[in-house]
């Protein structure tokens, strides 16, 4: 107590998606998912419990936060305080090295770093499975950011059985993720709202659950076999299936825009030219391109030729949670 603890967590991109909860309060998903943690995007969070504080204080990128983000953070810290048997308020300072406009969810790295720093600052010594369970209570995808490389979030049935575990932390496959930013605007429908609307109204949701389970088994086999092409094909197919749920919801909605479709067409054109490039998208309009290192220049050139103003970030497999 009263000792500041700093943790770093990297964001991740799901190759087999999570879209929908069977328990919204505990954030228990309807399907298991699998992700790749990325080296370029991370959050550093420092937490200290201070008996002189009368409420939790949150600073994000050197700006004092008083909105709903603080409310969510306090609710999360209440879980930590309950586990540690304390009632002391905390000071949290978080620095995000995640470009929010890129459609890279900073909540994954943010809550993973907060889980690690706050639990240790409160005197807890949690193993990584317990940290993953705790991080999940802040953001589902944060459960996977406890681990580096490829990680699977097992859906489970309750708080104790829903957690992530590593599939391959020291990635042997030549794989990278290019994030293409063409639209930096705020998405109109938040992820939580979107996924719950899809689960409630899309007639194809149960089909998605069954197909996703098949995709997950095949994805783990592709990783074990070091089979990049199968991994890419599965990731693109799974992402498009997820987004098809939104098109078939009532009323229908989509995170796609014209840029999204243009990049998807460009990726298909690249494949027709013999370049292994595959697309994946989360809840936003911007596309991530899964590729290998020898294709970086040709993919970036194709993007810039068609979209001169596009922002491109290249990320490789990244590490799990660490303390600074």
From TrEMBL:
Its domain of life reads: Bacteria
Q: Which InterPro entries match?
A: GHMP_kinase_C_sf, Mev_decarb, Mev_diP_decarb, MVD-like_N, Mvd1_C, Ribosomal_Su5_D2-typ_SF, Ribsml_uS5_D2-typ_fold_subgr
On whether Membrane is a keyword of this UniProt record, the answer is no
Give EC number(s), comma-separated.
Answer: 4.1.1.33
Mvd1 C-terminal domain residues are 178-309
Q: What class of enzyme is it?
A: lyase
Q: Does the keyword Lipid biosynthesis apply?
A: yes
Task: State the family named in the UniProt similarity comment for this chain.
Answer: Belongs to the diphosphomevalonate decarboxylase family.
Name the record gives this protein: diphosphomevalonate decarboxylase
């Amino acid at each position: 107590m009263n000792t500041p603890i700093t943790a770093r967590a990297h964001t991740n991109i799901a190759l087999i998606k999570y879209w929908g909860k069977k328990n919204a309060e505990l954030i228990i998903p309807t399907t298991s998912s699998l992700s790749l943690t990325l080296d370029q995007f991370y959050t550093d969070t420092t937490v200290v419990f201070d008996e002189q504080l009368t409420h939790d204080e949150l600073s994000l990128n050197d700006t004092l936060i008083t909105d709903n983000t603080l409310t969510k953070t306090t609710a999360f810290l209440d879980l930590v305080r309950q586990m540690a048997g304390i009632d002391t308020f905390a000071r949290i300072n978080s620095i995000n090295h995640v470009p929010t406009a890129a459609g890279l969810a900073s909540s994954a790295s943010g809550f993973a770093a907060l889980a690690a720093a706050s639990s240790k600052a409160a005197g807890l010594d949690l193993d990584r499975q317990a940290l993953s369970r705790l991080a999940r209570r802040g953001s589902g995808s944060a459960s996977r950011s406890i681990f580096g490389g490829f990680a699977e979030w097992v859906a489970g049935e309750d708080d104790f059985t829903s957690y992530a575990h590593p599939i391959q932390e020291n990635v042997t496959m030549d794989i990278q993720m290019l994030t293409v930013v063409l639209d930096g605007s705020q998405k109109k429908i938040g992820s939580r709202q979107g996924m719950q609307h899809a689960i409630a109204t899309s007639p194809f949701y149960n089909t998605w659950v069954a197909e996703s389970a098949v995709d997950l088994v095949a994805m783990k086999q592709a990783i074990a076999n070091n089979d990049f092409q199968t991994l890419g094909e599965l990731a693109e197919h799974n992402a498009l299936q997820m987004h098809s749920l939104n098109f078939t919801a009532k009323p229908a909605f989509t995170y796609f825009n014209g840029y999204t479709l243009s990049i998807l067409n460009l990726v298909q054109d690249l494949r027709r030219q013999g370049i292994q490039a595959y697309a994946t998208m989360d809840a936003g309009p911007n596309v991530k391109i899964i590729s290998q290192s020898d294709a970086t220049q040709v993919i970036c050139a194709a993007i810039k030729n068609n979209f001169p103003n596009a922002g491109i970030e290249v990320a490789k497999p990244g590490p799990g949670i660490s303390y600074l």
